[in-house]
Amino acid sequence: MYWFLVIISFLLAGIKTQKPKKYKKVSVIIPAYNEEETVATVVEVVRKVSFVDEIIVVNDGSSDNTEAEASKAGARVITHETNKGKGEALFTGYKEAECDIIAFIDADIYNLTSKKVEAMIKPILDGKTDITKTKFSRASGRVTELTAKPLLNFFFPEISFEQPLSGQFAARKDILKRINFESDYGVDVGIVIDADVLGISITEVDIGAIEHDMSSLSDLNLMANEVVRTIIDRANKYGRVIMIDDIGYYIRMSIVGLSFVILGLFTIFFVKFVPLTLGIMIGVIGIIIAVYYIIKVIIKSIVMIRKTPKANLFKSFVKIHFPMIISIIVLLLMISTFIGAAHYSNGVLSIEPNSRNLIIYADDSPRDNSISVRGPYIVDTAIENESDIIRMPSDAMLSLGIKANDTIKIDGEWYTINDTRPNEGDIIRLPLEAKDELGVEDGDVIQNSRLKEIFAGSTIIHNYEKDSISFEEKYIVSSRDRNASSFEVLLNNESIASSSGIFKNSSTYDIAINGEYVTSISNLNNTKFEFENNTIEIVFDDTNSTSIKQYVRQSQGNFLDFII
């Protein structure tokens, strides 16, 4: 029994201190300069982390007892005879470390905990990233906010870490071989930039609050100078200065050229008072400017790409070139529209661009959408066996105030309205007789605003359905929108529908049930009537509206017909 308990104890101990399946040796480098008060505490905290194999304190020419305190706490101490700077201290530790993963931790942290250290190293041990850098809440950060972030945002906009100068970070040792260590305070931001540009995976880890000594203004001034120098050096090295300066100018001139091309096309097709010759001249000048500077942009970009690692350059490249890319897309869309509107017949090329109609309703009429974009529509012949059916898009139906299964009378012939067939978009299919009467042919393009003109004079029966009751309203399409009156239909005091249309003063409008005359209305007076224990009311309101629906008068048929 005793041997069994011993085995269990060893297994539990192994579980508590186990490393990842593939063993990785971890070293912690602590650069220190005159940190005798805190270095021992930092070393002791790091020693509590079970997977740390080696602790190296690089004593960077300290004049106090930093070396003795670090050694007493159990760290391996490497001493610089003179103060060489933080970057040199980190590099010394990196060269001496015998490990797979290195963590760099400052020696002046008062509230360091083993959990903070573990949070830095664990993502690399788990294979989730190559480098971790920390972010934490602190009282300072002036160099970060006033110097590092603005410059990084300008030259390296793809880098968006909260604290690029955090000071505490960890990395795989083989990855650090690809990075240039700065000798001073520029080392932190240099590693961040190198890692990003080289496409090395880098993750920002939140380790909570950090307390350490506040730097003096003179130290902050020195730090800011070294950070600025590092960022500018990297910007030159990776071609970002060229990208901002030369390429930026060429891009701006390219946009000027593209804008001239767009302006030329616009004046040719849409501005009548500008002579055609002037529009063509504007477009040609724009083409010359755009082509010349786009070629310049391409040449400079190729030079920059050749001297810069390809990894994360793409993000900055797109951000810098974005305005030119958008201008090119706009121009291509315009050109594709004109190509799509081109027709060639009998040796004549005709370009007739047609735009969609933006519809904005400013009245109070009940509608599903007060703002919509509709049309244009293309006329085609009705398909076989549909000589009494008109197919049209839903947008066209909305403009005419109709829906599927309504009926329309054109020159004495009645047709059923139906939806367009799948994948036919904005095609209106009309029987031959309807096309002849409406004066349209196959291939004609109809603007949404012209629909009411083309269908003017046609009679429409529009259907409403509500539970066990339905009714039809009958109207004639007007060629233009006119002032209209709105009304509501109530069944047993419950609203079942509302509509609006054109009523003529002093005219009478008949109401029927199942085709039989029941009552009439005139002068927009409300009316009420009963049928088989049902009470039906027509109530008018003062809503301001317009419509193309001109309701049929008494001599033309029933204005409303209820089917009960």
How is the topology of this model organized?
Layout: H1 2-17, E1 26-32, H2 39-47, E2 54-60, H3 66-72, E3 76-80, H4 86-96, E4 101-104, H5 114-125, E5 131-137, H6 142-155, E6 169-172, H7 173-176, H8 187-197, E7 202-209, H9 217-237, H10 240-244, H11 246-270, H12 276-307, H13 313-340, E8 342-345, E9 348-351, E10 357-360, E11 371-374, E12 377-381, E13 389-392, H14 394-400, E14 407-410, E15 413-419, E16 427-430, H15 432-438, E17 445-446, H16 451-454, E18 459-466, E19 469-491, E20 494-501, E21 508-513, E22 516-522, E23 527-531, E24 534-551, E25 558-563
Helix pairs in contact: 6-9, 8-9, 11-12, 11-13
Give the structural class.
Answer: alpha/beta
Supply Rg: 40 Å
What is the number of helical segments per DSSP (H or I, 4+ residues)? 16
Strand proportion, as a percent range, falls in 25-35%
The main pleated sheet reads as:
11 strands, mixed
Total beta-strand segments = 25
Helix content: 25-40%
The pLDDT mean sits at: 83
Shape: elongated
Q: Segments where pLDDT lies below 50 for 5+ residues?
A: 12-21
> From the structure provided, what is the oligomeric state, counting identical versus distinct chains?
single chain
